[in-house]
């Protein structure tokens, strides 16, 4: 059996670097955030940052000093981003509900598909909402470490559960307006999760391909909706 060829040193270095990234924690990712950098152009001093995100040292020689807890700051940033995301999803769900109750002349399907496209436009890089980019970036940074940080994973789960719960009444109303019901073997949670996964995938692509077309989103949503539902007046033996 011939020996396995030795990989170039450059490739070996890349492997090690990727492993380091894979093991990174919130502290590792946010090392650039120091009390001094956070106070540089702000109306507070670095000592204030240490006071807000710090703790007294346990050793006698550290008494009276504050150590900066970057992880506490990172978790506070994530909590803020998660709360903003939940609030934003509530507004989006409200716009979908309005589309369901006030369909266009082409009907409820086109109405809600149009509302989804309008919502996605706000997440395109360079959009007018300046709060979206940092929130989304924080979300993706959290995804990068959630497998090694249980608190981060818990916060992401909370956010996702709250967002999906907000869409359930919208899809319930959509089923009523289109004369459909959940297909046997499926649930409303399944439908919400499937649509969310579809939209998440497109939003992720927009981060590196901002010109990506969303023209297909409406049809894709419709395909998911139809595959998870059936006509409400369909007889049991026809299922």
Strand content: 5-15%
Mean of all residue-level pLDDT scores: 84
Largest sheet: 2 strands, antiparallel
Alpha carbon gyration radius: 24 Å
Output the helix-strand order. HHHHEEHHHHEHHE
Could you list the spans in which at least 5 consecutive residues all have pLDDT below 50? 60-64
Note the total helix count.
10
- Kindly state the percentage of residues in helix: 55-70%
Shape: globular
Strand order of the largest sheet: 1-2
How far apart lie the N and C ends? 57 Å
Structural class: mainly alpha
Annotation, overall tally of beta strands: 4
Walk me through this protein's architecture.
This protein has a two-stranded antiparallel sheet with strand order 1-2. Strands 3-4 form a two-stranded antiparallel ribbon. The model is unreliable at about 60-65 (pLDDT under 50). With about 240 residues, it is mainly α. The chain is globular, with a radius of gyration of 24 Å. It has ten helices and four strands, in the order H-H-H-H-E-E-H-H-H-H-E-H-H-E. Helices cover about 65% and strands about 5% of the residues. Helix 8 crosses helix 9 (about 190-210). The chain has helices spanning about 10-20, 25-30, 35-40, 45-50, 70-100, 110-120, 130-145, 150-180, 190-210, 215-230; strands spanning about 55, 65-70, 180, 230.
Map the helices and strands.
Elements: H1 9-22, H2 26-29, H3 35-39, H4 46-52, E1 54-56, E2 66-68, H5 70-101, H6 108-121, H7 132-145, H8 150-178, E3 180-182, H9 188-208, H10 217-228, E4 229-231
Antiparallel strand pairs: 1-2, 3-4
Helix pairs in contact: 5-6, 5-7, 5-8, 6-10, 8-9, 9-10
């Amino acid at each position: 059996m011939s020996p396995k060829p030795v990989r170039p040193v450059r490739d070996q270095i890349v492997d090690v670097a990727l492993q380091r990234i894979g093991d990174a924690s919130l502290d590792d990712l946010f090392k650039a955030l120091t009390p001094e950098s956070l106070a540089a152009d702000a109306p507070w001093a670095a000592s204030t940052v240490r006071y807000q995100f710090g703790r007294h040292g346990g050793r006698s020689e550290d008494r009276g000093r504050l150590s900066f807890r970057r992880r506490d700051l990172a978790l506070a940033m994530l909590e803020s981003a998660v709360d903003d995301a939940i609030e934003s999803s509530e507004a989006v769900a409200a716009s979908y509900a309005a589309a369901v109750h006030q369909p266009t002349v082409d009907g409820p399907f086109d109405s809600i598909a149009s509302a989804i496209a309008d919502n996605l436009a706000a997440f395109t890089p360079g959009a007018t909402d300046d709060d979206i980019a940092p929130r989304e970036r924080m979300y993706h940074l959290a995804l990068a470490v959630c497998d090694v940080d249980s608190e981060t994973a818990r916060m992401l789960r909370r956010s996702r559960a709250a967002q999906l719960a907000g869409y359930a009444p919208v899809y319930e109303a959509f089923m009523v307006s289109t004369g459909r019901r959940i297909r046997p073997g499926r649930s409303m949670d399944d439908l919400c999760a499937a649509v969310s996964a579809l939209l998440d995938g497109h939003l992720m692509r927009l981060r590196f391909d901002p010109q990506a077309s969303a023209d297909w989103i409406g049809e894709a949503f419709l395909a998911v909706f139809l595959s998870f539902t059936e006509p409400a007046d369909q007889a049991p033996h026809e299922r």
